[in-house]
Amino acid sequence: MLRVLERCGVYRTAFTGDRATTDLRLGEQNIGLWLIAQMDLVDLTEYPRLILERAQKKAEDKGTVHVSELDEE
Fold it and tell me: Are 10 and 36 in contact (CB under 8 A)?
């Protein structure tokens, strides 16, 4: 699901300086934000859980501190 949200551009700015491209990106972001809202309707913890899992995977790939270890400090 995060790959779809990334493709929708919810993690980037929509503004490019070109109106047509900006409008396209705003439309893509709108779909991504709608998907997040739909996840929230089902379970308010789903989207944050996905984000935490992604952060944990990135940390493990880099060999850095595990996100759950931060809570213990």
Answer: yes
Domain spans, the chain: 1-42, 44-73
Q: Record the tokens describing residue 63, joined without a space.
A: 């060999």
Q: Which residues contact 34 (CB under 8 A, 6 or more apart)?
A: none
Residue type, 56: Q
- Cβ atoms 7, 27 nearer than 8 A: no
Per-residue pLDDT of 9-65, as tens digits, reads 999 999 999 999 999 999 999 999 999 999 999 999 999 999 999 999 988 888 866
What does the pLDDT look like over 54-67, one tens digit per residue?
999 988 888 866 55
Name the residue among 63, 67, 35, 29 with its Cα closest to residue 51: 67
